[in-house]
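Narrative of activities, Objective 1.

The group set out to show that a structural description can be obtained from nothing but a protein's sequence at a throughput compatible with the screening campaign. Below is one input-output pair from the validation batch, recorded exactly as produced.
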Amino acid sequence: MTLDPASAYQALLSRDRRFDGRFFVGVSTTGIYCRPICRVRTPKPGSCQFYGSAAAAEAAGFRPCLRCRPELAPGVSLIDSPDALARAAARMLDAGIGHERLAELAERTGVGERHLRRVFQAHLGVTPIAYAQTQRLLLAKRLLSETRLPIAQVAEMAGFRSLRRCNALIRECYRMSPGDLRRQVSNRVSHDGVVLSLDYRPPYDWPAILEFFAMRAVPGVEQVADGVYRRCVRDPAGKGRAGWIEVSHDPERSRLQLSISDTLRTDLLGLIAAVRRQFDLDCDPQHVAESLGALAAARPGLRLPGAIDGFEQSVRAILGQQVSVAAATTLAGRLASTHGTPIDTAHAGLNRLFPTAADIAALQASDLVSLGILATRARSILALAQAVASGALRLHADAPVESTLTQLRALPGIGEWTAQYIALRCLSWPDAFPHTDLIILRAFPGLKPREVLAAAEAWRPWRGYATLHLWKQA
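Output recorded for this entry:
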């Protein structure tokens, strides 16, 4: 990634959080690399080298700062990135996908291995393999900094095949042992278990996103209480593990706190990535505000609510066709209660996993109709489940948007509103725009849906955020 040193240095002087995660600075006099918001004394320009990723800084021989902690920096939205292919691949590596086989990464991005390696190196400054290694190292550093877990457990949870390999790499790259690294952390850990910090670029409208999830919380699967979001989850890698997560807000430090059940400790990379998407932590709210203008002024920091489970959310989108949010949530609760998987958690009332695509694909339409679901929607849900269970349809944030929308529209009972809503929630696509939505149409009195679509061109590529603002203003 090419960076203009003069502009990057001015951003470093400002310590403006808008630049957090967009680049890192290596300081030649100390051998340390930092986030641009680091509160240490600003180095002289001649001592600074700028990098587009933490992996590139580490490949150049710099060690991560123990004060600003580069592993906590927010990412970059794909739509906000000129190197979309490289960033898409990096986002998959962030989620633990493709660490073992570059072929898996190439298949998911739809390009050849050689081309992917070349583009990745050109834009991020390192190979995909080196980037993946840095992600494992940074996760190990995070666990050493934020938990009391034994070092052997840290190595396993960070994805290392052996404790010896983890120790050797930490010594080689960070020039200290895991024990020394843990002892140098300034803020002492005051809790047991796994509680991790997830930073964002402020402002962040936590009350709005929490209210959104609270109104749609499926009984048994999710709950929102006392300013905290909880839900039951399966492991992102699909290895049969399950547990719960808890998300709370730390506004003073511009971060969320993620607690994870012991049963999911070996799935951290995937879970961290999933929660960052669900709560839209990689958004640059300043860019969105500049594009939306007066529309966004009333609720600065409004975020797109994503989804932990794309299939689950897509089913709920179908259930929500032409009914109230409360009615759709009731139906989703019946579906989870009847066909979901029971699970024990540490939280009362949180006891159910939403049924998988395979679970629902094995049902008959009559099984769904008996829950109060209309026959037409039952057929839509079954068609969706069969497509996902067979692997023909992927409902993840790394799925190609346009081809996924085409596949969705081809399913019975899925029109433009449902397809766009799924793109908004499940694909985390910030330009999704359900222009036939009744609330959106009311915001444009006298205009037909096609005219509304034309009028919304001014909001691209942030029409998804415009949708949320219009809904909030209704």
